Please model this.
Amino acid sequence: MRARSRRRPSTGRARFHSCWVAGTSWPSTDDDLAVTHPLPGPVRVAASSRSGLFDSAQLSAAGVTEREVRSAVRSGEWVRLRPGLFVTAADLDRIEAAGRRHHLDALAVTTTLARAGAALSHGTAARLWGLPLPLDLPPEVRLTDAHRWREGTGYVMTRAALPAVEVTTRGLYRLTTPARTLVDTAREWPELPAVAAMDAALLRRLVTREQMQETVQRHRYAPRMPRAARAVALADGRAETWLETKGRLRFRAAGLPPYVGQVELWVDGRLVKVVDGWYEQAALAVEFDGRVKYERPAYGGSPRQVLFDEKRREDLLRAVGVRFVRLVDDDLGSGWAPVESRVRRELAVPGPVERSFRAVPRELGRLRMAGSSG
Model:
């Protein structure tokens, strides 16, 4: 009796993409022998310049049969992203590990739609620009087209005016400019993530406040544009973290006086510390602390050393009359009431008349190294 050939088991991901996109699954055949399916050289070279993406036409031109394609997908070595579009499982693992799966999906969608006048927009453009995102942002790819509305599996294309000045390219992608992206998202997102994205874009010099204001003016009759206009008015390029944005908005919502963001404190001609917020009359510094600041220091050193250095700087400033209010994320939520009372008490007490320190506001914040926060 001839021994039965063992089929290489498919991965759950391969089955999902095959059924979800192609709408079918294939019966077991002798095609499913434990064989490998390497990409032909020309296909691999072309795919390497498109984030690993390759298509049926390229495979056919290289002599790959449809039967071989089905076998490669069933085996889990290739993943079908959309009809006629594939990526190897190895490349997909690498892309997902780098947090760039949405980038690949966006490329697959634009390739399939082939709409030369469309541009990736809204949350997808925000991802491509590397902006902070809401935690519950839907996964579908977003596009805007001046002439057509369309919705399909994994994407939504909005019909809206798309002036040439609001469209650009970034690598493989045609997408809305940072200003248009921020205004579009601010019309849909809650206030905090909308303003945090604007703060981050201003901090990175991706956009100017004037560019956002001009975009709002061009589309002033668009739905929910007043929300975007309010977000632009609240944006501040001195905020260096999401937590700082959240704190600034919380202070404003409580009716507290606005503080000046990112202020350098100098003593005896030496820069001692840059504080997140500063009240000049009260000589009161506001600091927003995220855990990562101490758990993964941005500029090297151990967490213990970072904490020790922070304490020494603060002790020096306290000795010359500076007071501090330190806040964590929980203080801005359920723990807000006592915090607000404390801030109001501190503001009611004026700072020293004679000062041996100097406060110098920065016009813009400064980018921190990866991993820093708060």
